[in-house]
Design brief:
The protein has 356 residues and is α+β, with helices and mostly antiparallel strands. The chain has a domain at 4-191. The chain contains 9 helices and 11 strands. The strands form 4 sheets. Strands 1-2-6-3 form a 4-stranded antiparallel beta sheet, with helices on both faces. A 3-stranded antiparallel beta sheet has the order 9-11-10. The structure holds iron/sulfur cluster (2 copies). Residues 200-202, 204-205, 225, 230, 233-234, 281, 283-286 line the site of one iron/sulfur cluster (SF4).
Length: 356
């Protein structure tokens, strides 16, 4: 017989770092486009799994010398490779026991709403009255919270006792009835220290403006994160358009030219890794600052001998670099230097790299 204990053992064996189970009743009142019952009307349980982001994958970003590891191994590799293998292997075992199971990693590319919940225009239509517009996108952080895996911090990130803000979430939706775990009381892990607010380079996490919801029997509140600001700064660009003569920075989604922010050493967004690779900001506020703060107050089970931040945080001086750089060495349309700019200097900060 399939038990919650057995399911959890299998999830850990297949590669999850933490697992918890929620019952489907906790989704009562969910928006139709995010409701797992729209995908499996007979669903009884949602199994939520955390896949840790290695603290080491953030090391190179922290030092300012190696950014790709976080985007590859801490982001895209987990989302598009490691997590799908785990959720599908767990779903197979559940189906071996005669219960249907949906291996749900990240299928958000086909969702009918964008990442702030707005309808995507002219994308898809419902197949019958009362049905959601395809694709439904189950809110993975909320699924994790409703399963008792952790709580939603002020930053909107899932915080767990095991890893703080350092994980991604995958789920299995199943018609197997499994013993649920208790929902974590809000405030258990997030103490509203606001380190995430102070260190987000986008200013995307407001101090006061919030989203409130009743979830799992609790009043839950998190910052109303400005995803447009985050999406720009996340890939390394500043919000405002580039001044003439500054390095260009082309946003991949709309071609608007921007300049790199002080949190990015790249003249333009590096190429994607595992369908992502855009995490140039290295989650400076919502993950790194939060992790540092949570570890400092002993709120994370995954302990380390040394603190994460060991040297002063760096900043790239783009004003100085731009004025002294005759061309952007990586852009197909080189940026002319300002009229008063000197010739190429003999020795510059080590910011150049091979073109894609
Ligand atoms: S940095 Fe502080 S306020 Fe922000 S999510 Fe983490 S614990 Fe909560
Ligand atoms: S990913 Fe970066 S820009 Fe976005 S909220 Fe986190 S710290 Fe801010």
């Amino acid at each position: 017989m399939l038990t919650a204990q057995k399911v959890k053992e299998m999830a850990l064996e297949f590669g999850a770092d933490a697992v918890a189970i929620g019952n489907i009743e906790r989704w009562e009142g969910a928006p139709i486009q995010q409701d797992p019952r729209q995908i499996m009307p007979e669903a009884k349980s949602v199994i939520a799994m955390a896949f840790r982001v290695m603290r080491g994958s953030l090391r190179g970003v922290e030092e300012g010398t190696f950014f790709s590891n976080y985007s590859a191994m801490g982001y895209g590799g987990i989302t598009y490779l490691y997590m799908p293998m785990t959720v599908i292997n767990l779903a197979k075992r559940i189906e071996d026991e005669g219960h249907e199971a949906i291996p749900y990693g990240h299928q958000s590319d086909w969702r009918a709403i964008d990442n702030v919940g707005r309808d995507r225009k002219n994308f898809s239509v419902p197949v019958a009255p009362g049905r959601a517009i395809p694709d439904v996108a189950v809110h993975l952080r909320i699924a994790a919270y409703l399963a008792g895996l952790g709580e939603i911090g002020w930053s909107k990130m899932l915080l767990t006792k095991q890893f703080g803000p350092r994980q991604r979430v995958g789920i299995v939706i199943t018609d197997a009835e499994l013993e649920p775990d208790p929902v974590m009381k809000p405030g258990t892990l997030c103490n509203r220290c606001m380190a995430c607010v102070a260190q987000c380079p986008a200013g995307a996490i407001p101090k006061v403006k919030s989203v409130k919801a009743k979830l799992g029997g609790y009043d839950v509140e998190w910052a109303d994160v400005d995803m447009d600001r985050c999406n720009t700064c996340f890939v390394g660009a500043e919000i405002k358009t580039a001044d003439n003569g500054m390095p260009d920075y082309v946003e991949p989604w709309n071609g608007i030219r921007k300049k790199p922010g002080w949190w990015s050493p790249f003249f333009k967004k590096p190429r994607n890794l595992y369908n992502t690779g855009q995490a140039v900001c290295g989650a400076r506020g919502c993950t790194r600052a939060c992790m540092i703060a949570m570890e400092a107050r002993g709120a994370v089970d995954n302990k380390f001998e040394k603190p994460f931040r060991r040297r002063p945080a760096w900043k790239v001086d783009w004003e100085h670099i731009a004025k002294d750089s005759p061309v952007n060495p990586t852009d197909s349309a080189p940026v002319p230097a300002p009229a008063a700019a000197p010739a190429a200097p003999a020795a510059k900060p080590p910011v150049k790299f091979e073109a894609d």
